[in-house]
Amino acid sequence: MSSVSLDYEPGRQVARSEKVGARHGFSVRFRGVRGSYAVPGRGTTGIGGNTPCVEVRVGGHILIFDAGTGIIELGRELVAEHLGSGTDAESRKPLTCTLFFSHMHHDHTQGFPFFAPVFLRGAVLHILGPRLARQDLEEALTKALLTPFFPVDLDEMAAEMAIRNLEDDEIVVLPPDSSEPRLVNATRSRPALTPDHVVVRNLRGYSHPSGIRFYRVEYGGRSVVYATDTEGYVGGDVNLSLFAAGADVLIHDAQYRESEYVGRPVPTQGYGHSTPAMAAAVAAAAGVGRLVLFHHDPRHDDGVVAVMEADARRLFANSAAAYEGMSIDLL
To answer: Taking the CB of residue 44, how many other CB atoms lie within 10 A of it?
Structure first.
């Protein structure tokens, strides 16, 4: 197979028809789409009430973005899938997945202690995320589970976990013949990749308290960008637009209505979240194929989210509000 360059070209528009000979599929499924806190109830049955979690099955790998309460049901399904793949431990398909944290606020971590694979001996979890406030990712996750906040410490969980900080200049490469992600320093190394490699790039964002990581997953000439917990800038977020350039799907924070963002007496400007207009501006500047509004405010019922979806579509026609169970197939 011919190799493809690891280098990312800012502003490059990837043709929608440009598919490379990848062997596996590429699908995105939304497991939790709410921000701040979970909101079960009659008013949220359409969109769902779980906090952020997005499952990506790509190139034979399972990638998970954030561990809000949406990860809980995903965990049950992964364990059931594993146990149903064979009659005993030797014949079963290994349960291996890679979890990416955008940041460590509660709504993005609160489902992790209830993620069933962490209690399954033999399961392997590769956990990647930012080093924030000079604190290692493993240290932050350990503190979140300390007694008396949770009865099981991180080091008491049965799964094998590899927890690593993800730096600004690192790219995650998942080869077709291994489930272990490889971290590559993009400024020092340019390994040749085949179309069967999955590449995950990251970008540091500064518009959310404590910082944020955006992720871009690329495989077989297709790409999806995960950009939650971000707030717009005057003239748009140029760095994020370049990072998302030509992506097939952009998942973008759109928590607040315009009236909430600038409203009185308590505006939400500066809280680190966007409006549908901000999300649409990034989508248009990046030339993406589809915009998915994400991180819905827990105070917004299904009807309010539908109005915000319509607002986005007036600015960027191919827009949709994320809902639990929503699935997008890219290959």
So the answer is: 22
Q: Does residue 179 or residue 244 have the better pLDDT?
A: 244
Element (H, E) at 141: helix 137-144
Q: How many domains does the chain have?
A: 1
Distances (CA, A) of 103 to 25, 89, 209, 256: 28, 34, 10, 20
* Residue 31 resides in a domain: yes
> Each residue of 183-194: b (16+ CB within 10 Å) or e?
ebeeeeeeeebe
- 3-state helix/strand/coil string of 194-247: CCCCEEEEEEEECCCCCCEEEEEEEECCEEEEEECCCCCCCCCCHHHHHHCCCC
Whether 51 contacts 59, CB under 8 Å: no
Q: Flag whether 19 is in a domain.
A: no
pLDDT band at 17 (very low <50, low <70, confident <90, very high): very low
Q: Which residues contact 48 (CB under 8 A, 6 or more apart)?
A: 30, 32, 33, 34, 70, 323, 324, 325
Q: How far is CA 313 from each of CA 56, 120, 235, 256, 321, rounded to the nearest angstrom?
A: 25, 43, 20, 16, 10
Q: Is 17 part of a structural domain of the chain?
A: no
Structure token digits, residue 290: 């589809």
Angle between helices 276-286 and 302-315 (to 10 degrees): 40
For 286, other C-beta atoms within 10 Å of its C-beta total 25
Compute the distance between CA of residue 57 and CA of residue 84 in angstroms, rounded to an integer. 18
| Structural domain includes residue 109 | yes
Determine contact, residues 97/62, Cβ cutoff 8 Å.
yes
> What does the pLDDT look like over 142-189, one tens digit per residue?
988 888 889 999 999 999 999 999 998 899 999 988 889 999 998 887
Q: Residue 187 belongs to a domain with what CATH number?
A: 3.60.15.10
Instruction: Judge whether 137 and 101 are in contact, CB under 8 Å.
Output: yes
17: alpha, beta or left, given left = phi > 0 and alpha = psi -120 to 50? alpha
For residue 280, what are the domain limits?
Answer: 26-329
